[in-house]
Write a structure and sequence with these properties.
Helix content is about 45%, strand content about 15%. It has about 500 residues and is an alpha/beta fold. Strands 5-6-4-3-7-1-8-13-2-14 form a ten-stranded mixed β-sheet, sandwiched between helices. The radius of gyration is 26 Å and the shape is globular.
């Protein structure tokens, strides 16, 4: 009897202790667990790094913290992490139009096709659904041209991404509230079809076309200012926001981060419904196509700075805001490691580069036009890339005799007008479709830093899907890129 009472008392004490432990522990567990939102997110940011995947993120993170001695990328602070596969109906390696169609409208389709399936059926995008069904304001921001594949993927429905005039027409008919960043290409063709000046054509569709810092900064809201196409001032030769590495040459442009901040402010004011903003870091892809690691790094940092602006907005409205960051595909087959540097990286070598491949290619055109001798060009290479022939004082970063031989061969090739230059597969492997001299110099520097590239095109690597805020937990796991659309559609109860 005494033993039974003792056992009962002992069990009672254990139960009481378990209850106390549960009371103390449950709040702690809830604090760290994802909050399931009571309502769909009201403010949605979708960041797409064109050509962006784990290698681009990793290399930039290492460079930013170890070479620049700055804080790590803010995108690495995201709590929920998913992974998306990017194959399409044409190929295991996708291109941008098919990739963005998967993300924007949830369909797998052929390369170079925007929101049209292989049978010719057109699909409504997530941005269009949000606008028509929930009355969300829509913003499209890109460092690439506003009618190129990724931005066009949210408003265009074309069997070819290269139908510029038709895509421009769809942009003007979209009714989206803010287009910002780089300029529209093919404006003259669109004007010819419309039979009137381009600005007048846009005005007839209800859009203001502005391209000064003052005009963009003074924007208030769609209610006051109407629909706008806000083009950054001081663009480069391609009518795009200049590469971040070239920023000293292009002072006072309106950056991707500034557009992100302005777009969010503009769409938030006088708006009871909510907004959807797509921001593309489009020139990450361009830098990776040309296998230019330094230029790519600064484009990813620029992209990350735009994400910071969204997080500033989120911090004020955490229960109503969702931020997603992903890529459409990986570009360049980037590898962090090189056989000649063994297990070591020398990323400080990249800090010597002060010019993008694009800007140096323009200089090479000048070398050819003016027949500048090789010795003078070699001196300019030192000026812009910080590397010179071995002179006994630069043992860690110098041009070997073999390097100079490669540069001389590439110089000779670049001195021939591309229109009359014979083209072979071996030349493509060596230089891609880019200037031979520029490509060779950058390849030498990247390899000395421990960086290599596998292609001038895209790869089949999966891309990260990073999420923060209301509903972000839904984006964890491994899935096809079409699921980004599906998850958003289901969260927002869209038809």
């Amino acid at each position: 009897m005494y033993m039974r009472r003792y056992i009962k008392s002992f069990l009672a004490v254990i139960i009481i202790l378990m209850i106390i432990l549960a009371v103390l522990t449950v709040p702690m567990l809830l604090k760290d667990s994802p909050e399931i939102p009571a309502a769909p997110p009201k403010y949605i940011f979708l960041f797409i790094g064109d050509g962006f995947s784990y290698p681009q993120m990793t290399l930039t993170s290492i460079y930013k913290t170890s070479v620049l001695n700055e804080k790590d990328l803010i995108l690495k602070s995201f709590k929920w992490i998913g992974n998306a596969y990017t194959e399409n109906t044409s190929s295991l390696i996708t291109e941008s139009a098919a990739a963005i169609s998967a993300i924007a409208s949830g369909i797998k389709t052929d390369n170079e096709t925007l929101n049209v399936d292989p049978d010719g059926n057109k699909y409504e995008t997530i941005a269009e659904k949000l606008k028509t069904q929930l009355g969300y304001k829509i913003g499209i921001v890109s460092s690439d041209n506003l009618n190129h594949a990724t931005p066009a993927g949210f408003y265009a429905h074309q069997e070819s991404r290269y139908d510029s005039a038709d895509i421009i027409s769809e942009l003007a008919d979209s009714g989206f509230d803010y287009f910002g960043g780089s300029d529209i290409m093919g404006k003259s063709a669109a004007a010819d079809i419309a039979g009137k000046p381009f600005i007048e054509f846009l005005g007839d569709k209800g859009y203001r076309y502005i391209n000064t810092r003052e005009d963009i900064e003074n924007l208030t809201s769609p209610v006051i200012d109407g629909k706008v196409i806000a083009i950054s001032p001081n663009l480069d030769l391609y009518a795009t926001i200049p590469y971040a590495i070239d920023k000293e040459k292009y002072a006072d442009t309106f950056t991707l981060a500034e557009h992100t901040k302005k777009c969010a402010e503009f769409l938030y004011n006088d708006n009871e419904n909510g907004f959807f903003i797509m921001v593309e870091g489009g020139k990450i892809d361009w830098a990776c196509h040309s296998n230019d690691a330094a230029t790519m790094i600064y484009e990813v940092i620029d992209f990350d700075n735009a994400i910071k602006e969204a997080i500033e907005f989120y911090n004020k409205r955490p229960k109503e805001t969702l931020i997603l960051v992903t890529g459409d595909h990986e570009t360049g087959g980037l590898s962090i490691g090189y056989s000649e540097t063994y297990i070591y990286l020398y990323l400080n070598h990249l800090a010597n580069q002060t010019i993008s491949f694009s800007e140096f290619s323009f200089k090479t055109y000048g070398y050819r036009y003016n027949q500048i001798p090789f010795e003078t060009v070699l001196a300019e290479i030192q000026q812009y890339f910080g590397i010179r022939p071995y002179d006994g004082e630069n043992p860690s970063f110098y041009l070997s005799a073999g390097d100079i031989e490669k540069i001389r061969a590439a110089y000779d090739m670049s001195m021939i007008d591309p229109s009359i230059r014979a083209f072979s597969m071996s030349e493509y492997v060596a230089y891609g479709f880019y200037d031979p001299l520029t490509t060779t110099i950058i390849k030498i520097i990247d390899q000395k830093a421990g960086i290599t590239w596998g292609t001038y095109s895209h790869s089949a690597l999966p891309v990260p899907v990073l999420a923060m805020g209301s509903g972000g937990e839904n984006f964890m796991g491994f899935y096809r890129n079409t699921e980004i659309f599906v998850k958003l559609k289901d969260m927002l109860n869209l038809k």
